[in-house]
Every structure is written in C-alpha cells, then in structure tokens.
Design brief:
Rossmann fold; alpha/beta; 171 residues; 6-stranded mixed β-sheet
Amino acid sequence: MSPTYLLKICTVGAASVGKTSIIVRYSTQKFREHYSPTLGTGFAYKKMNLGDNFVNLQIWDLGSQDFLERVRANYYIGTQGVMFMFDVTSWESLNNVMDWKNEVERNVDEYQALLVANKIDLVDERVISTEEGKEMAKKLGMDYIEVSVKLDKNVNEAFEMISTSICESFP
C-alpha cells in the first residue's frame, strides 16, 4: 500500500502576480481573465499521484495587502511548502519576494520553497530574464520554475515540484 500524504502549500507574492489564478488553473483547469484581489485567504483542495504515493494538497491563497499581515500569520500554521510568485513583467514583484520570504520565515519553522515566475506568455512585456529569475532563486535557496497560468504551461509541474520537495524532506 502506498503512503498517503496531506500537504499544506501556501502561495505568496505581490498583488496581481497570479496566486489565485495558478490555484484555480491547477484545481479546476480554468483560467480567470479578470483580476479580483484576494481579501483574506482562499483555499483549494486537489488530489494527485506522486510516484507511488497518493498526495492530498491543501493549497492556500494568501491575500497580499499589507494590512493582512497579522491575519496571514494564522494561516501559515502547518505549512510545509511555499510558492513564492512573481510576474516576469514587474521588477517590483520580484524585489518583493525577499519581503515575503522574511514574513514566511517569521511564521514557519521548516518548509520547502519554490520561486515561480508567472506570465511568461507576455513575451513583449517581459523585463526579467530566466537567468535573473534563476539567480534570485539561487540567492534565496529555492528551486525555480517559469509558468504561464494563462496558457497552462508548467502549472502542474510547479505543484509537482513543491510536493516532491516536501515529500523528500520527510524522515
């Protein structure tokens, strides 16, 4: 019998980087065209097979507004993985990743991290190269992946990467 894992993953990052969209795309295979900020938190549940293991994912979408920081602290409890997201068309969103990492470190003792570069479909608007994204990930000690939630490119792979990292961290 294969083990079954329950994993808690949080998505964090600046407003409008695609945190809600990646969760909706992954859990429902749908894409939301219109931006609507998450006030508080959102939640999705997804089952997946990871090798010989069954994995149940709890995916938490944490609102990014500054005034929610105290509220977010409670939602980090039990987190095993964090997807730090940024938008490849926004230097500000990449620069904010360090602030998000600091917040997570204040609230979570041990976790696996993945830096997710979103909106790679916006080729003409892109300002952050793959190399620059990888360099930031290396600096922060995280794995790195580029996705297009809109085109459903590497979305499943991002969740597989973070889930694999979490499962491999178990004793």
